[in-house]
Amino acid sequence: MGRNSSGKIGEDAAAEFLTDKGWNIIERNYHTRQGEIDIIATFGGYIIFVEVKTRLENSLFLPREAVDQKKQAKLIQAALMYISSHEIGLLQPRFDVIEVIASKNKEIKQINLIENAFGL
């Protein structure tokens, strides 16, 4: 499963997962010079910036391990850019990570939501 292929499948599965939980997805694949935010959503008084990581079920590493401090810093900068250019009202920012585990056949095996994975 190629990186772009698995990433798209994982992001689509994550978006459906969040929508099913009642989240309002307001943007996908938001691009800035600082980087890309996979999903921006609102739920329960928060504006949530979501990083989606997809891995094969036999991977040696958990998907969340790919969201290191360097990646977190880029996501925070991109989120600050979003906040400065959009009216978010009283919504509080939050950073979540979604892990998507897929089979070689691109079948989604597991989705894990890690709320408040890191902060500003």
TrEMBL record:
It comes from the Bacteria. SUPFAM superfamilies: Restriction endonuclease-like. One of its GO terms (molecular function) is nucleic acid binding. It holds the Pfam family UPF0102. CDD domains: PoNe_Nuclease. InterPro entries: Restrct_endonuc-II-like, tRNA_endonuc-like_dom_sf, UPF0102_YraN-like. Belongs to the UPF0102 family. PANTHER family: UPF0102 PROTEIN YRAN. This is UPF0102 protein CCDG5_1136.
